[in-house]
């Protein structure tokens, strides 16, 4: 099984340079250039793998942090109670998140990923690859650029975000509104689709094993369309309406989602490109696994919200499979900042368990939401019952009503199916339902968005909204 190397991108690039015919002409391995990588036979390979590694390395942190906001996780790191006070209590006057605190992350890494994508595009354009090979790499890079920007806007929402990487680091790119950011993401994903369609039969680099089945331009396009569909469903719920929902349904038809009612096994529901981990010296392990990060716990509300299977005794199988009771309660660090943790996740049983990026199960539920929103209630019912009966082992629903009652059903299935996958807080906010999140203590509050980090604010003469915290 192919794994990542042990060094960060810049370090990997240094060691990946090919031997020169003139052994006295030694490149500067500590500062590899894009031009140098374009001319290096291994350069495109290393740049592409650097992007995949960057995405993987941010996976656990993202799901954990937005999981705390969404009352899916607790971060009870024993020696630092700010992991509780930062996102759940904040600072006073009025109560809000601190832009210099523990709740302002998920920023720099995404822009670094976007910069890496730009570097790959620049390198491939300067390379001697064929036109179709260049198109394939451009489609790959643009897909990840859009994905990073999607992660950013999910955390900042109405605060907006820059969408460009400026060539001059002392001249920050302007902020765009949420809707402008979403439109930019959709356009870039569509541009990537055009590139991938023209990308020939193979990429000029090799993927790791987690992308088996998604490692040609045509099959990677299905991943691109899955991301595009998710973006469009979010846009549909945020004002774009039927136009975006219908576009999402079209994108889903071009993705790897199974046909309505066709996902009859858990393996079919789990189908997705994956991040891979290993215990190989220098590689990294899955930080979302309790075996690796034993201070991340499941929120106490999760089992209490589970519906019962037909026997009336056994909870929703998604809770049975994913959440396990602790031998004894774990007290929150700090004095009275949080309640005891009673459960942990077992989604990733080993510290080298792979992590799906965007599972078929979520795509089916996105299709259900799009069909519900466009009044195709019969199609929505088929998808909800497919997931509900196979993944939850619950009795099927008789009908999906229009309006808020139908959204109640979607909310339940989505929250159970995508536990600890970075969705609950984002979904409830876009649906206008943040009040559905429980408050463990009277001192806690429900954050709307993550603030713009202080360093980003300090770099600007005119401060963007969000530098004052989550007002």
Q: Secondary structure elements and their pairing?
A:
Layout: H1 9-16, H2 34-39, H3 43-69, E1 73-75, H4 82-88, H5 108-125, H6 131-156, H7 178-197, H8 217-240, H9 242-253, H10 266-270, E2 274-275, E3 296-298, H11 317-322, E4 323-330, E5 341-345, E6 355-356, H12 360-373, H13 377-391, H14 403-417, H15 424-430, H16 454-458
Antiparallel strand pairs: 1-3, 2-6, 4-5
List keywords for this structure.
471 residues, mainly alpha, two-stranded antiparallel ribbon, 16 helices
Describe the protein.
By secondary structure, the chain is mostly helical. It has a domain at 1-214 and 274-357 and 443-471. The chain contains 16 helices and six strands. It has helices at residues 9-16, 34-39, 43-69, 82-88, 108-125, 131-156, 178-197, 217-240, 242-253, 266-270, 317-322, 360-373, 377-391, 403-417, 424-430, 454-458, and strands at residues 73-75, 274-275, 296-298, 323-330, 341-345, 355-356. The radius of gyration is 22 Å and the shape is globular.
């Amino acid at each position: 099984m192919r794994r990542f190397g042990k060094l960060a991108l810049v370090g990997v690039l240094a060691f990946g340079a090919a031997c020169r015919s003139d052994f006295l002409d030694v490149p500067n391995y500590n500062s590899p250039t894009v031009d140098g990588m374009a001319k290096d036979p291994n350069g495109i390979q290393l740049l592409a793998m650097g992007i995949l590694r960057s995405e993987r390395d941010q996976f656990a942190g993202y799901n954990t942090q937005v999981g705390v906001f969404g009352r899916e996780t607790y971060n009870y790191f024993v020696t630092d109670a700010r992991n509780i006070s930062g996102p759940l209590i904040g600072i006073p006057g009025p109560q809000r998140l601190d832009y210099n605190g523990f709740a302002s992350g998920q920023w720099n890494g995404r822009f670094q990923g976007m910069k890496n994508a730009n570097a790959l595009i620049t390198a491939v354009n300067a390379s001697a690859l064929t036109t179709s090979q260049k198109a394939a790499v451009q489609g790959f890079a643009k897909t990840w650029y859009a994905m990073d920007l999607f992660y950013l806007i999910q955390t900042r929402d109405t605060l907006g975000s820059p969408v460009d990487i400026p060539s001059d680091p002392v001249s920050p790119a302007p902020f765009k509104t949420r809707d402008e950011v979403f439109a930019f993401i959709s356009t870039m994903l569509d541009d990537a689709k055009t590139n991938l369609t023209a990308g020939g039969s193979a990429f000029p680099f090799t993927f790791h094993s987690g992308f088996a089945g998604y490692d040609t331009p045509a099959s990677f396009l299905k991943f691109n369309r899955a991301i595009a569909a998710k973006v469009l469903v979010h846009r549909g719920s945020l004002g774009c309406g039927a136009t975006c929902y219908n576009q999402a349904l079209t994108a889903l038809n071009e993705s790897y989602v199974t046909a309505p009612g066709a996902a009859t096994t858990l393996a079919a529901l789990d189908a997705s490109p994956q991040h891979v981990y290993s215990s190989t010296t220098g590689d990294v392990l899955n930080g979302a696994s309790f075996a690796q990060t034993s201070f991340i716990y499941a929120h106490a509300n999760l089992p209490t919200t589970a519906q019962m299977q037909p026997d009336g005794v056994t909870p929703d199988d998604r809770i049975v499979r994913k959440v396990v009771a602790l031998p004894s309660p774990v007290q929150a660090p700090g004095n009275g900042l949080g309640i005891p943790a009673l459960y942990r996740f077992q989604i990733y049983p080993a510290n080298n368990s792979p992590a799906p990026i965007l599972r078929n199960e979520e795509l089916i539920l996105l299709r259900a939401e799009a069909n519900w929103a466009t009044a195709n209630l019969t199609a929505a019912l088929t998808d909800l019952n497919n997931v509900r009966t196979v993944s939850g082992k619950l009795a099927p629903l008789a009908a999906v009503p229009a309006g808020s009652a139908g959204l109640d059903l979607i909310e339940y299935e989505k929250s159970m199916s995508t536990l600890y996958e970075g969705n609950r807080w984002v979904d409830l906010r876009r649906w206008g339902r943040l009040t559905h999140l429980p408050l463990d203590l009277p001192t806690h509050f429900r954050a709307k968005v993550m603030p713009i980090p202080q360093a980003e604010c300090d770099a600007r003469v005119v401060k963007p909204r969000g530098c004052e915290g989550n007002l």
